[in-house]
Automatic annotation (TrEMBL):
SUPFAM superfamilies: MFS general substrate transporter (SSF103473). This is Major facilitator superfamily (MFS) profile domain-containing protein. It is found in: Cell membrane. GO terms for cellular component: plasma membrane. It comes from Tsukamurella pseudospumae.
Amino acid sequence: MNRLESSFGRVLATVAASTLVAMLAYSGPLGNAVTLNTALRAGPASATWILASMSVGLAAALVTAGVVADRIGHRRVFLAGAAVFVAANLACAVIATAPLFVAARIVAGIGAAGMIATGLGLVAAVSEHDGHRARTAVWWSSSMGAGIALGPILTGALDLVEAWRVFYLVLAAAGAALWVSARRIPAQPPHNPDRAQSVLGFVLLTAALSAAVAALVEVRARDAGLAIALAVAAVVLTAALVASQRYGSARLVDSVLFRRRRFLSATVAGLGTGIGIISAMSYSGTFVVHGLGLSTLQAGGLLAVWAGTSAVAALGFSRLAGVVSGRVHLVGGLAGVALGLLLMSGMSDGAPPARLIPGFVVAGIASGLLNTGLAREAIASVPAGDAAMGSGVNNTARYVGSALGITIAGVLAAGAPDAIAGWNRIALAAAVASLVCAAGAGLLTLRAGAPAIGPGTPTAPSPASSQPRRG
């Protein structure tokens, strides 16, 4: 094994493990939401925030973490994120009230954002070889699926022995191990050390995303007054952000990237992933417990059918990663997810839980294809120096879409006569959203060889043309 291959393998192992741990943290409460609500004495609004809190932290911090990482170094931001993740989960393990638990989960999301936004950048800094890039996409997407599958199962199993707090101790220990592993990765020079940082832009972006996601959560919590106030604040903050980027001397993100069709296509697909399959699966645990009478462990096992199939499917698609275009991954994945969601709809009174399994399997296979494409396109659609930023934008779209989708799911469920009717509406709405985003992602890359909108936009290096680079 040559030096490049050895270094790449070590970095990929750390990045894949960090994705697995972050998704464990994200999905764990989906499996024991009822237990958490009881233990923390959470009311309806707090219960909503417990499920959405980590999404808020992720959505608010991913872009900023990616941009800062490209400026000061990916490893430094990864280490900082891992340290924050450890501290936040230790807090979750001892906190006894819902508001403090929600705050700790938001901070955990910020820490996870530091790891997720920089992971693909760490690998890209070691090698841009086309084979390595394809392998990275496969293992990243497989780790994501495995983490989402295992989280609810682990929390459901711990519920059997009334040890839900142990889950957060496990996460803290895993985060510490990742910090140690990342310390052994050779430091690479920053890609853009001389790029001026827009401190005001960072503050406004974080505040705007936080307010927007919080407004969505409060809509689901049925606090109309607070939701409107947060939405107005988000609009004002967004306007201020646009003005700062238009007239200020420093930029958060090079505006030319948003004229790249390939970059926009990946961003739309990320949004579709969140608003479609992730939001539906986030609600599925509550549905099967209250609507079908399953235990939290059984609900986690059923959810694992989708997420586990996704992880295995991503490995199976590894042979296609180098020959199938990003467009096929994204559009085909979203369309397949829509088909799976349609198969999950149409539930009737007395239907067994097994009625959902065919849809879970189809959606899982499609999710494996979709996640593999997202991992590849997030870094292949931007210059090498902006890899972490590209990953940050893509994942931000995913978690903003998730927050929006979960809000829509909550509204649809609340307006339905029973849990089964609510689930049918949610599955159908998520399928429609997936198809709309599939159409959008496809249209953006309809013209072959046209990655940008408008003249003079530089093209991103394609995976096939990338050459190995020494780490």
